Amino acid sequence: MKIADSNWFEVEAYLKGDDRCVLPLGSTEQHAYLSLSVDSILAERMAAEAAEPLGVPVFPVLAYGLTPYFNAYPGTVTLRTVTYMNVVRDILDSLYRSGFRRVLIVNGHGGNSPVQPVTMEWMDEREGARARFHNWWNAPGAWAKVQEIDPKASHASWMENFPWTRLPGRPLPNHQKPMADFDRLKDRSAEAVRELVGDGNYGGYYQRDDAEMEALWKVGVEETRALLEGDWR
């Protein structure tokens, strides 16, 4: 049940019997040869496929997040941390006013992790409110599948290269890129990050077989759905 495909009458009717919803979080940032919207595409699709059999509403993805380290790559858009925290809090407050009490946040971008303390504060301040923050790609099941396929996986590498995130007509390298020196990335400006990372892939193969990607996606959907339908007490 996508909110984009619903009207308010239908949401009001749904809330008479259930108070769950899903909020996907993404970002707009460089992903080497892949779409700049990778994180948003994956978070929204993951949320929709996980929630569809349950009839739980999925809100449109928040397509901008925290990614200042990629500011030297054209097309990247980042919010200030205080702005992002306030936006997420305003969304959660709006959901609560509507009648939603259980919110599964499906996050597609690691830089958005600072939002988790916001959800904790929100739950403390709103009676009956529950929020689960879910990084779908590094949850236990999904990450185990990544390691099973190829442990050398990172930002903008094969693990984000699905049929729905790659761009038609853009050929990809077929070699395995050496992993970036993450210790050197920790204290670098955006320009220095670009100098160190180059095309944007942090390391690993650029693409794997689509059958492997389908297997990873299936695990992610099942794991996300289990959180949505599990015990919320």
From TrEMBL:
Q: Which Gene3D superfamilies match?
A: Creatininase (3.40.50.10310)
> Do you know which Pfam families this protein is assigned to?
Creatininase
Q: Which UniProt keywords apply?
A: Hydrolase, Metal-binding, Zinc
Instruction: Kindly list the GO molecular function terms attached to this UniProt entry.
Output: hydrolase activity, acting on carbon-nitrogen (but not peptide) bonds, in linear amides; metal ion binding
Cofactor dependence is on: Zn(2+)
Instruction: Name the source's superkingdom.
Output: Bacteria
One GO-annotated biological process of the protein: riboflavin biosynthetic process
Which protein family is named in the record?
Belongs to the creatininase superfamily.
Q: What is this protein identified as?
A: Creatinine amidohydrolase
Tell me the classification of the organism that encodes this protein: Bacteria, Pseudomonadati, Pseudomonadota, Alphaproteobacteria, Hyphomicrobiales
